[in-house]
Amino acid sequence: MPLVVPGLMSKDGDKSSDWMNKLMGKKLGDASNETTFAKTDLPKEHRVVKEGDMMSMDHKPERMNIHTSEDGTVTKITHG
C-alpha cells in the first residue's frame, strides 16, 4: 500500500511549495532582487502575517498567507 501524505500531492501543496521557493528567506518590498521580492508580483488574494499577529479563521483556499519573522523575512507560505 502506498504512503499517503496530505498536501504532498495536492494542488495546494504544490502551490505553496512553488511560492516557498520564490519567497523563502526574502523580504517584501517595491522591487525584486536577491534579497527582496516585489509586492506587486504577489497574487491578488494574499495576506502578510507577522510573527505574533492574530489571524482570522475564515478559510479561503485561493488566499496565500505569507508568514514573516519580526524583521520581515518570509518564513512560511500557506494557503487558506
Automatic annotation (TrEMBL):
<feature type="compositionally biased region" description="Polar residues">
    <location>
        <begin position="71"/>
        <end position="80"/>
    </location>
</feature>
<feature type="region of interest" description="Disordered">
    <location>
        <begin position="52"/>
        <end position="80"/>
    </location>
</feature>
<dbReference type="InterPro" id="IPR021719">
    <property type="entry name" value="Prot_inh_I78"/>
</dbReference>
<protein>
    <submittedName>
        <fullName>Uncharacterized protein</fullName>
    </submittedName>
</protein>
<feature type="compositionally biased region" description="Basic and acidic residues">
    <location>
        <begin position="52"/>
        <end position="70"/>
    </location>
</feature>
<dbReference type="Pfam" id="PF11720">
    <property type="entry name" value="Inhibitor_I78"/>
</dbReference>
